[in-house]
Amino acid sequence: SRTAVVIPAAGRGVRLGPGAPKALRALNGTPMLIHAVRAMAESRAVSLVVVVAPPDGAAAVKTLLDDHALPERTDFLVVPGGESRQESVRAGLDALPPGFDIVLVHDAARPLVPVDTVDGVIEAVRDGAPAVVPALPLSDTVKQVEPAAEQDAPEPVVATPERARLRAVQTPQGFDRATLVRAHESVTGQVTDDAGMVEQLGLPVVCVPGHEEAFKVTRPLDLVLAEAVLARRRA
Ligand code: CTP
Ligand code: MG
User: Fold this and answer.
1) Cα separations (Å) of 159 from 2, 92, 142, 143, 152?
2) Which of 22, 170, 196, 228 has its CA 20 to 30 A from that of 222?
3) Residue 8: enclosing H or E segment and its boundaries?
4) Structural domain spans, the chain
5) Dihedral sign, CA of 125, 129, 132, 136?
6) Which residues 6+ apart lie within 8 Å of 206 measured at CB?
């Protein structure tokens, strides 16, 4: 069974601050999206990568892919994204040709995920799990609060979930293709990851080990960390 990856890269990156769309920002001179595409194409199991570009930036992303060295055994498609991450992933799924039974969804904003993590996710889907997410234990204790209406006002704590039972989930998340398509067709309300939609269908989702270097570049400090990780790899 062949594996395709959908890379949602259509976000603006508001939390990163003003500048180009997040996926097009450089990390040590190379756009974040190119790092992410290479991280996926590095897996021998991956034969197609669908990049979901900013709505007005599909042509620019195509040029970017043409201008960077990428493995020849992998095919690339570029489609325009939507207003929400969910819509962008949907656009990527709609563009998938037949013949790919396994689909990974990977944030362009996680450019440094190691290939072993990618392969671990694919292997778990091949072994029969309809939905697989790479996950890590939490360092911080987490509080559930009653969100305050005013910015920075004190927020009452409602509960403290047992930390040992919590996981922070990353991407790539891996799916049986038909399951993911069905999940995207039937989902209601706000979901922040694709596996959450599969949970809504009542189907099992499993966690496999994630990796520290698969962290999401979200705020300015994450750019500093990402460049430090790249520098350490080259050393
Ligand atoms: N994404 C997307 N389409 C959107 C919104 C997000 O494809 N309409 C993608 C982003 O490009 C990113 C991934 O989803 O690769 C994870 O989203 P996030 O880290 O929240 O990125 P942004 O939405 O760009 O950042 P922010 O929320 O700070 O604006
Ligand atoms: Mg976002």
Assistant:
1) 44, 38, 9, 6, 19
2) 196
3) strand 2-8
4) 2-234
5) negative
6) 124, 129, 131, 132, 133
Residue type, 41: A
Ligand nearest to the CA of 11: 1
Distance between CA atoms of residues 51 and 227, nearest Å: 23
Q: Which atom of ligand 1 is nearest to the CA of 82?
A: 8
Query: Which atom belonging to ligand 1 lies closest to the Cα atom of 83?
Result: 8
Round to whole Å and give the CA distance between 112 and 97: 27
Cβ–Cβ < 8 Å for 7, 107 = yes
Question: Between 3.40.190.150, 3.30.420.40, 3.40.50.300, 3.90.550.10, what CATH number should domain 2-234 receive?
Answer: 3.90.550.10
Whose CA is closest to 198, among 156, 169, 223? 169
Ligand 1 geometric centre to CA of 139 (Å): 24
What single letter denotes the amino acid at residue 158?
V
Bridge partners for 52 per DSSP = 8, 79
226/75 Cα distance (integer angstroms)? 27
Residues near ion ligand 2 (CB < 5 Å) are 11
pLDDT value at residue 187: 85
pLDDT at position 192: 86
Q: How confident is the model at residue 188 (pLDDT cuts 50, 70, 90)?
A: confident
Q: What is the pTM of this model?
A: 0.97
The count of residues in the chain is: 235
99 φ, ψ to 5°? 100, 0
For ligand 1, whether the C-beta of 109 sits within 6 Å is: yes
Q: Please check whether residue 9 is in contact with residue 36, taking contact to mean a CB–CB distance below 8 angstroms.
A: yes
ipTM of the complex: 0.99
